[in-house]
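If you are new to this repository, start here. Below is one unmodified record pulled from the training split, so you can see the exact layout before writing a loader.
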Amino acid sequence: LDAGSPTNPFPRLSIIEPSRSKPGKDLPTINFDRDSGSRARSFGTEVHAVFEQIEWLEGDPATYLQELRTATPDFFNDLQSDAFDHVLQSLEAPELHKLFMRPQGDAEVWREKHFLTILKDESGTDQFCSGIMDRVVLHMDASGKYTAAEIIDFKTDQDPDPEKYRSQLENYQRVLGQLIGLREDSILTKLLFTRPKKIVEF
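And here is the target side for that same chain:
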């Protein structure tokens, strides 16, 4: 008999977070201290929170957002930055406005979608993968089966560098394909840079 230690049926997996991905490194290992020092509300956090309020943008952005503000005054009154005005100015750009409009055909939208799943790294090792997808638009056929999707990630960078986020979106693409059973080539990934009002698609 083998007198060695028994094999652990529940091996401890490392944890990855796509939003911390670095160029050239698909699945970086991180520690649990991801929220250290981030409790204070930041401009970027509030911009994400305002975008989260939008299901489908209908009509003029200023009118739509003002209606949201009237319907949920506590949320908007609690904002500590100019995130509301920043989002409004962003949505005045036709290209950005279009991303929030209801597409033709059957569709649903996920906002600030939290996930925790397992992905394999390049060596085939299982790793926990956790994160939040800012906005996911899911297209469906008449039977309700998902046929395509778009992942939209919001960035408030002063100096946009799209390549910095390529690995993050590639991992989101892998995760979403796993969650809903779609081929990765049926999932578009887009960065929405709010300051230059620019969209970059990978």
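Two things worth knowing about this chain: The mean pLDDT is 85. The first helix runs from residue 43 to 52.
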